[in-house]
Amino acid sequence: MRELRRHAGRLLIAGFDGRTVPADLRAIARDLDLGGVILFARNVEAPEQVAELTFDLRQLAREAPLWISVDQEGGRVARLKKPFTEWPPMASLGRGGAVELVERFAHALGRELRAVGIDLDYAPVLDVHTNPKNPVIGDRALSEKPEEVARLGAALITALQQEGVAACGKHFPGHGDTSVDSHKELPLIEHPPDRLRAVELVPFRAAIAAGVASIMTAHVLVPSLDEQHPATLSRTVVHDILKTELGYGGVVLSDDLEMRAIAANMPVADAAVEAIAAGCDGLLICGTDHDLQVSAIEAIIRAVENGTLPRARVEDAWARQRRARERFLPQPASRPLSARDLRLVLGTDEHQAIAAEMARFL
Q1: Which parts of the chain have pLDDT scores under 50?
Q2: Euclidean distance between CA atoms 38 and 35, whole angstroms
Q3: Which residue in 183, 240, 270, 316 is the catalytic one?
């Protein structure tokens, strides 16, 4: 029973409020274990504070180190502002088209994230931007051409991971041709499987070949693949296509289960069970309601106990997580860098020059 509780707890990547570690998050880690945390602007004051915060968060780990994660893509989606380098959106890299610039950007991004103790970045966006009216992807995508997204996305993944930061390709099986925002409602993608394999899945194949540490699912409904379940909750999409057909052996993460595309239709705790059953290996619950986060873990435990969720599925999820952590997570955690040392890494002239070169292509 204790082992099951630990394994279930380690599947959660939780959001929290404030710029220090809250007592409720410490309680989750103590009682149930914890897979990791995701940082937002609400958690960030200054680089020194972020470095101290991530060091304190690592002390919550019991038998396995925690993921310290963030959405730091560039452009609209960037939680770390000045004096961190403020990067242009990834569309600038696609318009430039140079792998060399992509690699310099990713190395610089990785160095800045590692300097403050962040080891998982939810980037790159691998969606193919085929719908110019898409309200949520837009300039977050590298290109409207699948081959370009594949080529540049694989280069970004390789360079970022060479800096010791786990990459996360998103949003599988593709969020580029949607007309609504999954933060607000469930998008519908009405393409046949052949089109999806020829366009949307191309960058994910390249990311897998590049050894991407994790892939994030999309909260989208693709009736040609599964008429009933959004991709995050679909065994056909996650297990059959991503893991079996494409042969992905890394960590599959859900997008935030509190987004309205999911939460408007079912309780978060029920969605957590369905996501793990579908093949997800980790769950993002990004809000600050720690009771809600605990309820998701407890629902997974109950589902295993009553036989509706195979224990082997939870054990496989944890095994995938463990392998990825062994690649990227420091153990033991090093002391945070001083303000002086951080100034030598963050927002340097070299990094600003890379950002300026990217901005030329906007």
Answers
A1: none
A2: 10
A3: 183
Say what the pLDDT of residue 112 is: 98
Strand partners of residue 69 = 38, 120
Assign domain 2-355 one CATH number from 3.20.20.300, 3.30.428.10, 2.60.40.420, 3.40.1500.10.
3.20.20.300
3-class secondary structure, 282: strand
255 is catalytic: yes
Considering 121, 177, 255, 281, which one is annotated as catalytic?
255
Angle at 252 between CA 175 and CA 27, to 5 degrees: 115
**Is 175 marked active-site?**
no
Residue 180 confidence (pLDDT): 82
Helix (H, G, I), strand (E, B) or coil at 16: coil
State residue 135's pLDDT score: 84
pLDDT the model gives residue 76: 95
Residue-level pLDDT at 231: 98
**In the prediction, which pLDDT does 334 show?**
80
CB 118 within 8 A of CB 111: no
